[in-house]
Amino acid sequence: MKNYLVASMVILVLSTVSLVYAPPAGWRSEVIITDDNQHPYGHCCIATDNAGRIHSIMRKLETGEPRCFDLDYYRSLNTGLNWSQILLGAPGGTAGVDYRSTDITTSGNEVMIVFQHADASVVKFLRSTNGGSDWGSAISISSGRHPRLAVDNGYLHSFYAREYAAGNYEIFRKQSTNGGGNWSAEQRLTDAIRNSWHPAVSVNAGAIHLV
């Protein structure tokens, strides 16, 4: 299997999400994932798996008030040349339901998503066990914002920002050993004078790196 690099971007002027793919020969022209001039997209995340599939999750701004976002999932089976919307995940736009920050990762045939349910600032988890074709029900992990997700040797790690003291947010972590069905007690990782936001994480050979 060839190694390749993928990156998602948002063109806000056109309200269009597109993808750029880089084979060894160089960067390929942009490919439109979804073309919707009425609904701007944002918070795009992307992941690949060992079968060569590319997975992308993003939030879509719904029209009207209150201002709400849907959570949309797209998949490509041919290195990003064509895309299909498999899951109109966690639809919002009604009764103030709102979905914000997202993250996505893969492990074997599993695709896993975390997202922030902004209406109640709850971090939730979604999993597909067949490469993104079908999805289970959302599982609540914790109250929090800006979630991130990583997997290593069968362990899932969720990181998020949560209010620790009045007006002060810190980064917390939870772990799952059964594919996200259950999550451990949370562990506080930061102790800052001011807010800690927007964690980023990488896992390699059992070592977890967090910024």
Summed up, what is this model?
The protein is an all-beta fold and 211 residues long. It has strands at 5-11, 16-22, 31-35, 41-48, 54-61, 69-76, 84-87, 99-107, 110-117, 122-128, 139-143, 145-152, 155-165, 168-176, 187-188, 201-204, 207-210.
Strand composition percent: over 45%
Total strands: 17
Helix/strand-derived category reads mainly beta
**Number of continuous helical runs:** 0
- Report, as a whole number of angstroms, the end-to-end distance: 31 Å
pLDDT average, as an integer?
Answer: 80
Structural features:
four-stranded antiparallel beta sheet; globular; mainly beta; 17 strands; Neuraminidase; 211 residues
Walk me through what this model shows.
With 211 residues, the chain is mainly beta. The protein has a domain at 5-148: Neuraminidase. It contains no helices and 17 strands. The protein has strands spanning 5-11, 16-22, 31-35, 41-48, 54-61, 69-76, 84-87, 99-107, 110-117, 122-128, 139-143, 145-152, 155-165, 168-176, 187-188, 201-204, 207-210. Mean pLDDT is 80; it is low at 10-15 and 91-97.
List the SSEs and their pairings.
Blueprint: E1 5-11, E2 16-22, E3 31-35, E4 41-48, E5 54-61, E6 69-76, E7 84-87, E8 99-107, E9 110-117, E10 122-128, E11 139-143, E12 145-152, E13 155-165, E14 168-176, E15 187-188, E16 201-204, E17 207-210
Antiparallel strand pairs: 1-2, 2-3, 4-5, 5-6, 6-7, 8-9, 9-10, 10-11, 12-13, 13-14, 14-15, 16-17
